[in-house]
Amino acid sequence: MDTNWCLILPTGSTNSSTHTVANTKCTKKQNKNWNDMFRRLISYKKQHNSTVVPCNYIADLELGNWVHNQRYRNNHKSDHRVNLLNSIGFVWNARYPLVWIEKYNQLVAYKKQHKTTQVPRTYSDENNDIHLGGWINTQRNLYKKGKLLEKRKDLLNSIDFEWKGKSGPR
Hints:
It contains six helices and two strands; from the N terminus they run ββαααααα. The relative contact order is 0.10.
């Protein structure tokens, strides 16, 4: 198997020498795959203004998985790859608070468009990548159990969030 040390070669490059980067060997195919995924992340960022791709991103599950792996699997990241990710504003710690704010902002946009926070449980946007109805249901359940953080409750109240969902067939 033809291997190269993990590095990113510019498109069209014919460099086949071995380079030491983070003591990790990768095949040329692995380098190409990484570059392809990086380009997809750049496209995602242009569209969503964020590098926080959900693991369950329906429009591109492979991208969601890849982004997760970049964050949490440190054993195969070269300094060059880390620098490339940093150059596009990659979010290394995308734990729940950041995701919560993104969903909240999606709810604000939904309310602006639809004049309500009553989002159908099955709602998703035109790209099928925003599952706002499920997130809202989670917020309501946390609220009912007294487990919703006060600052989050305040944010939701600030947009006249409707704490009781529509009753009817589920």
